[in-house]
Design goal:
Helix content of chain B: 25-40%
Strand order of the largest sheet of chain B: 3-4-5
Strand content of chain B: 15-25%
Oligomer: heterodimer
Structural class of chain B: alpha+beta
Strand content of chain A: 15-25%
Shape of chain B: elongated
Distance between the termini of chain B: 77 Å
Radius of gyration of chain B: 27 Å
Number of helices of chain B: 3
Largest sheet of chain B: 3 strands, antiparallel
Structural class of chain A: alpha+beta
Order of helices and strands of chain A: HEEHEEEEEEEEE
Number of strands of chain B: 5
Largest interface: A-B, 18 and 26 residues
Chain lengths: 210, 198
């Protein structure tokens, strides 16, 4: 009698363990996934903000000479010849700051260098920025950057009308979007969601570098 | 006699169960509070550190390039109160140098520091007082130093413990001199990695 009861208890313990362990592993996987998501999102925010700010380290009328190229993900290079140097600075800063394993991130690409966006207000409709001629079309970060072209032609950046209303202020904006794909990681066992991350940053022109 | 002892033991077992259930519930609640608060603080410490770095970079980008190219203007060398300055007083708004204004503005906006704790939507600007939370910027003549302080309200405060924690981040950045015509060297004193006075 005693022996069979003990054997029954053992079997019950094994069954309980078999039920609980997968649940615990599932929880641990999801905790780790949330932690990874927070870390990547923070890095994305930081990279985007620094990219927007780094535009002001280049003179406004500087244009990249023929043959210029930079950075890019997955071993790609972005050709920046003929584009404002600030665009290349922004891209270099972004890719230099985003150090997360690229296998985990699926980027939503866009034109690297754009101009002429407008946030709009009650009287003025919002305007989507337009890509510079020759801008790489599939960059992981997209920046709306003003510049001074040949002959002193001013190309506007992004007009933020919440600043200095109603005319707005010409600022630099950078944005990046990506989704995290856990399918190629050990976390795929228990993580069934694919978070989408988005970061947008705006940098105001400093008084002496416009 | 036997019966009454048995009943008392059964009653005590019920009491133990109740005490254990209440104690364990309290323990679990504390654990949830601790995990949630720690995660929240982790996120905010990262944000505040990023804000400090961006703030310092923004300040460094706002240095008057004429100073970097040895055009001292109305602020000759050792006479300057702050070594990295905007040369002309008219470039200054209020009491803040241009680099300070950009630095503080970027720090406050990036760390989402509210102007009024009751209304988180209105953010602080450079003209608002930067205490008890806010951005403080200083320069030693070679770099711009920024320190961002933010008071974080914990999502589930533990009873008996403070409901807010002060998080600080600091960063520094140097202005880019840039082209091949630059002749100036940094005239500042040696960098001292200490926060600016509040």
């Amino acid at each position: 009698m005693r022996r069979s009861r003990r054997r029954g208890d053992d079997a019950q313990a094994v069954l309980e363990t078999a039920l609980v362990i997968p649940i615990l592993l599932f929880l641990v996987c999801n905790f780790v996934a949330v932690m990874v998501q927070v870390t990547v999102h923070q890095q994305l925010n930081s990279a985007t903000a620094l990219a927007a700010q780094s535009r002001f380290q280049a003179p406004e009328n500087a244009v990249d000479p023929a043959g210029s190229q930079c950075c890019g993900a997955h071993g790609d290079t972005l050709v920046t010849a003929g584009l404002p140097t600030g665009c290349r600075y922004a891209a270099e800063t972004f890719y230099g700051t985003m150090t997360t394993d690229t296998g985990l991130i699926h980027w939503q690409t866009a034109a690297l260098c754009t101009s002429g966006g407008d946030s709009g207000n009650g009287a003025t409709p919002p305007v989507q920025p337009v890509a510079y001629a020759g801008s790489p079309a599939h960059a992981e970060v997209s920046c709306d950057i003003g510049s001074i072209g040949k002959g002193g032609i001013v190309v506007p950046g992004y007009a933020d009308r919440t600043l200095n209303p109603p005319s707005g202020l010409d600022v630099v904006t950078c944005s990046a979007s990506a989704s995290l794909d856990f399918a190629n990681t050990p976390l795929a066992w228990g993580v069934f969601w694919t978070p989408t991350l988005h970061a947008q940053a705006e940098a105001l022109p400093p008084p002496f570098r416009q | 006699m036997f019966r009454s002892t048995g009943t008392a033991r059964v009653d005590q077992r019920g009491q133990t169960l109740m005490v254990f259930a209440l104690g364990f519930a309290l323990f679990l609640f504390s654990l949830v509070c601790l995990v949630a608060d720690t995660a929240y603080l982790y996120v905010w410490s990262g944000r505040v550190q990023d804000a400090a770095q961006l703030s310092a970079q923004s300040g460094a980008d706002s240095v008057d390039p004429r100073y970097l190219y040895e055009d001292t203007g109305s602020c000759p060398g050792a006479m300057c109160a702050v070594p990295i300055v905007d040369i002309n007083p008219q470039d200054r708004e209020g009491t803040l140098y241009a680099f300070e204004r950009s630095c503080i503005q970027a720090g406050d906006q990036s760390a989402q520091i509210p102007c009024d704790p009751a209304n988180a939507l209105v953010l602080r600007t450079a003209d608002d007082p930067q205490v008890p939370e806010g951005t403080v910027c200083a320069s030693d003549g070679c770099r711009v130093y920024a320190q961002v302080t933010r008071v974080v309200r914990l999502p589930i405060p533990l009873p008996g413990f403070p409901s807010t924690i002060t998080v600080r981040g600091s960063g520094y950045a140097a202005p880019v001199v840039g082209t091949n015509v630059a002749t100036s060297t940094c005239t500042g004193t040696a960098w001292v990695p200490a926060p600016p006075p509040r």
